[in-house]
């Protein structure tokens, strides 16, 4: 049996090989700043206000934070980033990070841009998937109203049908182009509508393999059961289940909403409980690999190491197209690049869009990275270690 290469997330030379000293120092400065979350959040709030007032702050945001977490403002501007990542074995997923619109024209415009990302994924070998959020193409308040089975006006009924048509059209185009399409997770008060749409699309398009993928947010107490129910439906209806696993992105909002409604907290009570649910979901997906294709969206080293171990224990090729590891661009490079060098399938979510429009996305990245105990602390520690390692390397002799 061929021996598979070992890997370690502590291999910082591999983790940061794609970054020059200058780029690495710039990243270090940003993560240092994130140790002061009030300062960073105030800066982003002021930036949003400045945009509203028409002040010239675009260049400042672009230089300080945008390029750390986003690929560019357009698909074309992201292509050099995609090519750079692919040189180190890491594929990309173009993520048009616009959401929360209500006007029909703006929702249609977002859908048209997502169509362009699907077309790009068909022809660009650096891209492994396309992705979108339903909140970018549908009025989420209307989706919530439908989920709560409230009375709709005739105009609202027509708006809902148009949103569903936009969703299904994107899935149809992905299937026609043979591009795998990830549907991102959202808040629970309209997620059930999304789940139904995705299930309908899977039943249509996933007959020969997983094209459409749904997202399962494992911080929810009911999600492992929902995952198993989804697999049961796939078996019963004769299609392949596309699964993207994440821990979840809306914990505070979910808990506040449940408290407001007088309902039970839907989120696991501890991080450990969420971690255990996530890892159980990984095992379930690999145990059911004949029916399930998996994208594991995690920045947790324990979970990534577990999935890598499961792939090897099940005797699978590390390049099996049914299994992908995924992290966000600008974060967790020791995980992404070490897994890729070891032969696993790895993708980076590469957000893009006009700077003014992606501020909500940047704010979420700042939130999850901020503070002494946040993601930034570990990122900063490893960046400093790599800069020290590079500094200690013997200097090459110069030719006079």
Question: How does the helix and strand content classify structurally?
Answer: alpha/beta
The beta-strand count equals 8
Q: Which strand order spans the largest sheet, edge to edge or round the barrel?
A: 1-2-3-4-5-6-7-8
Could you please say which CATH topology applies here?
Answer: TIM Barrel
Tell me which CATH architecture applies here. Alpha-Beta Barrel
CATH class: Alpha Beta
User: Which blocks of ≥5 consecutive residues have pLDDT under 50?
Assistant: none
Radius of gyration: 21 Å
Please, what is the average pLDDT? 90
Using the alpha-carbon principal axes, give the shape: globular
Please, how many domains? Answer: 1
Roughly how much helix do the residues carry, as a percent range? 55-70%
Beta-strand content bin: 5-15%
Element order, helices and strands? HHHHHEHEHHEHEHEHHEHEHEHH
User: Between the first and last Cα atoms, what is the distance in angstroms?
Assistant: 51 Å
Reported for the largest beta sheet, the result is:
8 strands, parallel, barrel
How many helices?
Answer: 16
Describe this structure in words.
The chain has helices at 12-15, 21-33, 37-52, 58-69, 75-86, 104-123, 140-147, 154-177, 188-205, 223-237, 251-261, 271-287, 301-313, 333-341, 359-369, 375-392, and strands spanning 90-96, 127-132, 181-183, 212-217, 241-246, 292-297, 323-328, 346-352. The protein is globular, with a radius of gyration of 21 Å. The relative contact order is 0.16. It has one domain: TIM Barrel. It has 400 residues and is an alpha/beta fold. Strands 1-2-3-4-5-6-7-8 form an 8-stranded parallel β-barrel, surrounded by 8 helices. Helix 2 (21-33) runs antiparallel to helix 16 (375-392), helix 10 (223-237) runs parallel beside helix 12 (271-287) and helix 12 runs parallel beside helix 13. The protein has 16 helices and 8 strands. The model has no long low-confidence stretch (mean pLDDT 90).
